Amino acid sequence: MGGGTQGFETPIALRGPLRQPRQMLADQEYGGHASIHDDAMAEKLGFRAGPIEGPTHFSLFPPLLAQIWGKAWFERGCLSAHYQNMVVEGEETRAFVEIPAPGATSTRAWVEKADGTPVLEASASLGPAHGTTLLETRLAALRPPGPLLILEDLRLGMTGKADEPVQMAADQHMGLLYPFSLNQKLAAITEPSAWYSDADASPWGRPIIPLEMVSVLAEYSSAKAGFPVKGPAVGLFADQEIRMLDGPLFVGEEYILRREIAALSDSRRTESYWVRTRIFDATGKRQLAEMLLNHASLKESFAGYAAASGKA
């Protein structure tokens, strides 16, 4: 923070209450097989239980960011996060947001478990002058990947096969990737709000899609993109940014999605493809929001990976 009347530069943060997020992806199917959110699959890969999906933690932030930037954050806000440690059902989490200096449009945010274990680090910002987000910084620092196997047919700049029309009605089942409806999520969401279900309560006169469910909307039709990712392999979200340009997004509204490969990367355990999904109005002419998502595929979950990549 800038020097105020107290004469100190000490960062001061808003802190949310401890919450227990719910696991709603135990029955998820990913590429025709159980996902990492299935307990048995997670344990097979060395994790103690199926983790709660990362975007679930995004719901911890809107009450804090509304305190800082008000209604405008739902219209032009951006949360840019790197996931650090998994959370399983029964664990408690809490969000923090550093209070920015007066007039600042970007700040630091994070989530911790009750014992202080980091869950995610993030930047939160208000557009249009977001500054450089956390994931923009991470993208700029990526080194070129080594030889890829699961992702060897992907290319930077590759786009989805066609426009993808989507919507999220209140009782709409969101498919194999997200085997629940918005109403079912609202019954379990960590930070409930009448804005998500009551048109009369919403400042925009219509129920809005919660921040974590923007991720569900953006991934709902992802198979239609036809990106040639080899499988079966178990994937997880490693980095994620949701940005509103002319938001919020509304329950029951029709949107058009367009996807592009923004980056390719790898690590000791994963091969990653970063997808930028742009969300347009139903005419496809006005962009309203976008999501940047790092899909990380676990090498050990791909049959014969070591042998096929010459690392046997």
Describe this structure as you would to a colleague.
This protein has 312 residues and is an alpha+beta fold. The protein has a single domain (13-308), classed as Hotdog Thioesterase (Thiol Ester Dehydrase, Chain A, Roll), CATH 3.10.129. It has 7 helices and 12 strands.
Helix content: 10-25%
Number of domains: 1
Query: What is the alpha-carbon Rg in Å?
Result: 19 Å
What is the CATH C-level name? Alpha Beta
What general outline do the C-alpha atoms trace?
Answer: globular
Report the CATH topology name: Thiol Ester Dehydrase, Chain A
H/I helix tally:
7
Strand content: 25-35%
Rounded average pLDDT: 90
Number of strands: 12
The rounded distance between the terminal residues' Cα atoms is 52 Å
Summing up helix and strand content along with how strands pair, one would put the structural category as: alpha+beta
User: How would you sum up the major sheet?
Assistant: 10 strands, antiparallel
> What's the CATH H-level superfamily name?
Hotdog Thioesterase
Give the low-confidence spans.
Answer: 33-45
CATH architecture: Roll
- The H/E string reads EEEHHHEEEEHEHHEEEEH
Quick synopsis:
Helix content is 14%, strand content 27%. With 312 residues, the protein is an alpha+beta fold. The radius of gyration is 19 Å and the shape is globular.
